[in-house]
Structure formats: structure tokens, C-alpha cells
Give the backbone structure.
Amino acid sequence: MPTVALETRALSKQFGLVRANDRVSLRVERGEIVVLLGENGAGKSTLVQMLSGLLRPDGGEIVIDGQTRHLHSPADAIAAGLGTVYQQLALVPTFTVAEQLRLAGWSGELAELPFDPDVPLGARIENLALGARQRVEIARALLAARTVLVLDEPTSILAPAGIAQLFAALRRASAERGIAVILITHKIREALALADRIIVLRHGQVAGERVHQPDGWPAETEHDLLRLMFGDVAAPHAPAEPGALPTSTGSRLEVTQLEVSAGSGGNGLRDITFSVSPGAVLDIVGIDGNGQRELAEALTGFIPIESGTIRLDGVEVTGWSPARLLRAGVAYLTDDRLGEGTVGTLTIAENLNLKRLGAPDINRYGFLRRRAMRTGAVRAIKDRGVRPDDPDAPVATLSGGNVQKVVLARELATYPRLLVCNKPTYGLDVQTMLAVHGALRAQAAAGAAVLVFSTEIEEALTLGDDIAVIRNGRLTSPVPRAIASAAEIGALMAGR
Amino acid sequence: MSIEALLTALLASTIISSVALTIASLGEAIGESAGLLNLGIEGMMLISGFVGFWAALESNNLWLGFLASIVCGAVAGLIFGGLVVLAQADQVIVGLAMTLAGGGLSGYLFREAYGSNQPLLQGDLGRPLRHLGGGIPVIGPAIIGQKWIVFVTWALVPLVWWLLRRTRFGLEIRAAGERPFAADVAGVDVTRVRLLAAVINGAFSGLAGAALALAELGFFRPGITVGTGFIAIAIAMVGRWDPLRIAIAALLFGLLRSAGTWMQITGVNIRPEFLQMLPYLGVIVAIVILARGTRLPAALGLSYRRGIDRT
């Protein structure tokens, strides 16, 4: 029996412009427990989906038990001896536990159950607690996992006691059945608690690995892992020109004890207090999904606020509608450029004028003056370097970077008093990213207060005059860039 | 006529007039369990009914007519399945299109074949139990006089229950209709399961069309189903995809339908149009009362795309 259970060779997957997995090569031995560590967007889920047959790689090979496998479906992965525990739990809610396990190939004999889920077999899945459901999911996955068991962020739905139980079960499964266990997480503490070996993914590539020694983890491992996850960012990039001096001593945006209740999918926001001066950039950095979207939408009027106040130049604007805030000079660059930021079937010229359709230069007695719209659009396209340079091209035909240029051109043309940008450079190539950074700095220099949400520490340290960290719907106090440390920010982001 | 004879006649007509509906509803229950909402049953029944009628008439063989109807229905089901499962077209639109196409095509072909004539089928394949004695009053005579299609239908009820509840294929069907992602991940070929369910659904529609044209009535006429295919969708829902409940609901519908004719025979003075309306009114009431708390299969009407959908 070969001792290497799973090997990936230069596995790659690209979505549009984003290289989700870029030549990922790794080897996992039988009986070994490997933790794949990485922040959100590092490519962990893409890797899981390729291993489990849900996504086909663009390039590279998957070798299981010494055999090269082409996994066209989950059934192929199961046939190859690879089982997967999904983050969303792949169970049929209306089935009983027994029905669910029979669907996954269980014969019905108790002795043939590889893992005791410790729940009544006649209970319906939807009536079980999350922890119990996950045990059923593990039993389901282990029915297939003769060689490899993959778990995608399994701890995210568990309480600390449940996590300890899960880890004990995984150690038992790996020791008794000799299978390789690969667990995906973004939490360093969990990786250190479970792994024989930790592999860090960053930007879709293997950034490095650390091996557990007989006498424990080497000193500095935790610090090393942080560095591998978030990159070498000890020194900030060349500082951008400082923002123009504040035109007034007061704050442009002042947020006091803002709270938003946890809604569908979101964590909610708790006790958010900060302010931004005119001419300054505040960068709020954090791992995706920690409340950035809620905060951006609360400030721009898209979601209701539970308590707290928002002031714009001293005027309370709490609870104002998006349209009213827009008129008051609040511009919003959403991170969902194609879904919320633009209308894909409309042309560049139409999208550029979408927020000012009533303006007299393009609107005469309710009729739109298309020539005036195009003239303005041609100028904006030239200024921003949009490709293609055809004002009549539908926005849906543009690449992600060019869509962002169109959105920027539209939002900045209004000379906003406050500019809120959610992940303004997400998925952009380096050149476009620099152009976006430059445009945001220029807005601040012209006197706007700019609020940027970033997921990259580098960007925060490049762009922000002040930097704050958001995690689980809470915000740290902003600190000036001069005294901010990348390691400290990384630690705050990861929740240590 | 004695009261007993009248009741026997009412029950007998209730039973035969619920047969096509029961079969169509069972087929719809299988399709919906797999996540396929087939609004094309009406059209599938019509075209299969015509094809079976034509085959029976031309070959002078009723059995061949039934076979032709079932094959025609299965092919229609395959077309529906191909469009919504493989091409991932919208189920509602494809279903309605099939209802319109089936109705139009069967009407056109009937006129082409027979013009304004109305040919009738000879014989009815027999009544298997008629040699038996009456047994229980009213119920006994009402049952033993029935055509064999009635007993086939009754046999289908436990058979479909067994298929959905006791077989591996049934488990796969229900998983594909409730959460195709979970089925896929468990190694089930969701595309294959849904295609097969569509074909079975179509074959049942075909048999239902044959039951109506070849067994219950003995003739075909354009639009002869008068909405039975749509009522079947409602009955499957009222019966919560459980074959026994579906059979009972279909019988009650048949009772309301027969009651109209029966009341006219017994001389009750009500407008026939009102009586004809009763069964449909009954379905609306039943849906409001019985189907209120019903939870549809979660993936009903939704296509499944691997790597994208998590439902």
C-alpha cells in the first residue's frame, strides 16, 4: 500500500481574472493530519471543491492512493476513496439519519458504520442540533473516505467543546483507519491544536508549511504562520502624499455607538465608534465577512440601524434613505460591482449617468439627451483609461477592472463629501489597483473624507492615514499609519 | 330504481371516473418528489390519449393502444426532462408549453385522421371480477363490475408507495427533490435520477390518457381531458405526495364529478352547469383546507448546477 494518500501536482483553477488556485502541489501521507490554513479568498474552498469533484481543475493532477484520478463528479471522488465534510453540511433535511446514511451507501448494518454519530437513527436531520448534524455529516463522509477525509471549515458551526470532540474523533479516525485527514480553517489556534503539519495557502498558492516536532511546535511558529498568511508587510510601502490639511477642525463623518442587529447571514455590528476628517483616508481592514458590508450599507442608508448616531459635518443623518444621503454628498462604491454597482445590459454611457438622470445637461423635459451623455462618457473613459473605449459597449462585456473604473468615474464625478468604498481593489490586476489607489488619494486630497474597507494589510498600510481592524462586527480604535504594525494588525484580524 | 341500485351506480361511477386522475396524480407525485414540477400533464394525457386511441382503432387491439399511449407519454416525459434537466430550461414555461402543444397537436391529428367523425372503440378488455358474487351490498356490486384498469390503478397505489419509500431509487428521487446538492455529494447522479423521474411521470400521464380514452369512455375527442391534468397537480399536492392519500383525494374528486350526473338522474332540479362546477370547487376548498401546512419538496422547480448550487 503506498504511504502517500493524496498528492496534488500543480493544481490550478482560474475564475475570470482571479487565480483561485495557482499550481498548488501538496502531499499527504496515510494516517497524517494536515491543516490547510489561509485567510478568506486564499483559495481553500476552491481546492476542496476540486478534490471532491464539484469543480474541474484547469490544470494539474490529483493522485489518490498512487493513481491519477480525473474527478468529474462527487461520485468519482467517492469511488477514489475520498470523502468530504462540507461547511454547509450536505444533508437532506427531511430525511431520517438512517435514510441519509443509506443514501450515502450504508448497508444498514450497525457494524458497518465507520463512525457512530451518537444520534437516534430514526431522528429527522432537520430536528437535530448543528453539532449532531455535523456528526451525521462526518459519518456520511467517512463511508466514502477509505483513503482521504477532507473537512472544509468544520469548526465554524461548533462551540469550543464541540471542537474538542471533533478533533478527538478525527485523531481516532486517522489512527484507527489509517486515512489521511485534511482540515481547512482560517484559525491559527485550531491548526496548532490539531495538525501534524500545517500548510499555508495565500493568493491561491502554497505559501509555506510548518511541521509539528516531537517536542511540540517550534518557537515563533504562530508568528511565522501569521506572516505566511498575510504576507511580509513589515515596512509600509512608500507613503502616499499626506492628505490635504483638514478644511475644518471638525470631523466629516462621526459615528457613535452604532449597532446593527444580526440579520440574514450577517453578524450584525456592535458598538462601532469612529470618525473621519475631511481630506483623510480611514482604512478598515479585516477578513471578509466580519461586518464590512453591514457597516458600509448602514452608513449609506441601505440597512436599518438599531441604535447609535451617524453625523455628516455635524448634521445627524441617522436613518436617512440612500437617495437622501446621495444628495447630501455620500458616494458608495459597493464590492458587488456587477450586481449592485452597474446594470450589465446598459452601456458605459448609460451607467455613467445612472445616478444623475435628472440633471439638466442630459435631461430635457423628461427626454434623455443621448449625445450629451455620450460626450461626457467619452471624456470619462479617456480620463480613467477604460477598455474598450466605446461608450456604447454594454458594461457586462467589460472585465472586472474596467467595470470598477466605470463605477469610480461615476462616483467621483459628483465630488462627494464622503466616499465609502468596500474592497475597491478586489480581483483587480496590479496596474488597475494602483490607479484605484491613486484616484482615492486624489479624492481625499480634494477634501473628501474617504472610508475604505480592505482585506489586505498591504492595502491598508498603503492607503489609510488611519487604520482600524474589524472583526465579528466590532471595530478597534483607529491608529495612525505611522505607528501601525502589520503583525499586530494580522493578529487582530485573525482574532488573537 | 331502488336506493340501493342508485347508490351502487353512484359508487361505480365514482370509481371509474377517478381512475385517470389517480394515475396522473401518482405520476406527478413521482416527478415532484424528484423536484420536477410538470405542468405539461394535461398535454401529455391528450397526445397520449389520441395516439393510443388511433393505435387501438387501426390495429383493432386495445392492448396495443395502451402500449402506444404509455410509450408516447414516456417520450413526452423524456422531452420535458431533457429540456428542464439537461438544458435547464424553466420548468413552468416548458410544462405550460407542453400542455399547449399536446392539446393542439392531438386536436390537429384527430381532425386530420377522422375529420368531423366520431369513431368509437369496440370492447373494453373485460371486467375481471364479474363472475364473483356480490358480497357486501352496494360496495360489492359496485366493485365487481369494474373494468380491469380500475384494479391496475389500485395496484399502482402501493407500488408507487413502495417505490418512493422502500427502494434505493425512491431515496435518490426524494433526495434529488429535496436537496440535489446532498444527493450529488452522496454519489447520486442527480441528472440521471431526474431524467428517469420525468420519463416515469410521462409514462403515467400516458397511461392516464389511455385510461380515459380507451377504458373509461371508449372514444377520443380534442380537449377530452377537461383539465384532469391540472387537477392531478392539485391532487398530488393535497395528497402530500403520499400515494394512499392521493388515491383517496382522487376518489373524492370522482365522487363530486359523478354526483352531478347522479343528481340529474335522480331528478334533483339543479342546473347541470352548477353540478359540473362542483368537483372543481371541491378541489379549491380541499387545497385551502388540506394543503395549507404542506411543505413542498425544497428543490421543486429548481435546476441543479454542480459547483454552484448548494441547495
Remarks:
- The mean pLDDT of chain A is 87.
- Chain A has two domains: 4-230, 253-494.
